[in-house]
Amino acid sequence: MSVADEQPKAEEKKAKAKSGGGMWDTIKIVIQALILALLVRTFLFQPFSIPSGSMEDTLLVGDFLFVSKYAYGYSRYSLPFSPNLWDGRIFSSEPERGDIVVFKLPRDNATDYIKRVIGLPGDRIQMINNQLYINGEPTELERLGEETAGGPFGRVTRYRETLPNGVSYEILDAIQNSSTDNTPEFVVPEGHYFMMGDNRDNSTDSRVPPERGGVGFVPFENLIGRAEIIFFSVDEDARAWEFWRWPWTVRGERLFNGL
């Protein structure tokens, strides 16, 4: 075999080696990106979508938001598949009244719920005629008016509720003097929290005990993180992946709204 015959074969081997090396480099980049995404999702920010109207109008069906995983420290539920590696929380920081929190439903420790923190450990919580009482004192409640509502409710009344620490937000009330508008007094156990939705008559929350299909008191360990920002939002009847409909279905006014 001549030198002239060997040269093309040598160049062919180099090309194959270069091609193989380029493919391996691509695979390594993909693996590194996946590991980085997993670390960010586990320890920093996790995306969530809103499946129901229990937090309307603060959160709407079709909203996509980032939840800070580090806000309250880490428990077993901070990790994918919730492995039982330790008890309680590490690097813990307690939530504040009024925080919007994603947590694991206590009765199954698997389903993700999102509600607002109303009661802290040791608090006494009660609803009387749609008025929220915390430790025997009524919260400030300003009536903003009535409006037509979708779904099963014809009209709803809108209020602005202000908690003792100054956190203020709007709530909706569709049924006057419903069973969740008038409750017994709940005493929040140590290490637990009392959660409520902003859409008061369309929220199964801590006002309803677990044996009746409700949330009950939420253990500190079950908290996943604090809702921070709405990064994307589409109409309720749209799908986020239907990008060809985005110009018409994206709720531009909700993008990057802080919570």
Q: How would you describe what is shown here?
A:
The chain is an alpha+beta fold and 259 residues long. The protein folds into 2 domains: 1-43; 48-258, Umud Fragment, subunit A (Ribbon). 17% of the residues lie in helices and 31% in strands. The protein contains 2 helices and 15 strands. Strands 1, 2, 3, 4, 12, 13, 14 and 15 form an 8-stranded antiparallel sheet that branches. It has a 4-stranded antiparallel sheet with strand order 7-6-5-11, with no helix packed on it. Strands 8-9-10 form a 3-stranded antiparallel sheet, with no helix packed on it. The termini are far apart.
Using the alpha-carbon principal axes, give the shape.
globular
> At CATH's second level, what is the architecture of the largest domain?
Ribbon
In total, how many domains does the architecture comprise? Answer: 2
Beta-strand residue percentage = 25-35%
Distance separating the two termini: 75 Å
Overall pLDDT score: 88
For the largest beta-sheet, the strand count, sense and barrel status come to: 8 strands, antiparallel
Helix coverage percent? 10-25%
Find the count of extended strands (DSSP E, 2+ residues). 15
CATH superfamily of the largest domain: Umud Fragment, subunit A
N-to-C order of helices and strands:
HEEEEEEEEEEEEEEHE
Rounded to the nearest angstrom, the radius of gyration is 25 Å
Structural class: alpha+beta
The CATH class of the largest domain is identified as Mainly Beta
